[in-house]
Amino acid sequence: MDKQKIQQAFHQFNNMSVLIIGDVMIDSYMWGKVNRISPEAPVPVVSITKRENRLGGAANVALNIKALGAKAILASVIGNDERGKIFLNLLKERELVNDGILTCKERITTSKHRVISAGQHILRVDQETNLDLDEKTENDFISNTLKIIKEQNIDVVIFEDYDKGVITTKVIEKITEKVNKKGIPVTVDPKKRNFNNYKNVTLFKPNFKELTEGLKLDCEKNNFDEIHRAAQNIQKTKNIKSVLITLSELGVIISSNGNYYQIPSHVRDISDVSGAGDTVISIASLCLAAGFSPKEISFISNMAGGQVCEKVGVVPVNKEQLLKDCSG
Question: Which of the residues 81, 163, 278, 325 is marked catalytic?
Answer without folding.
Answer: 278
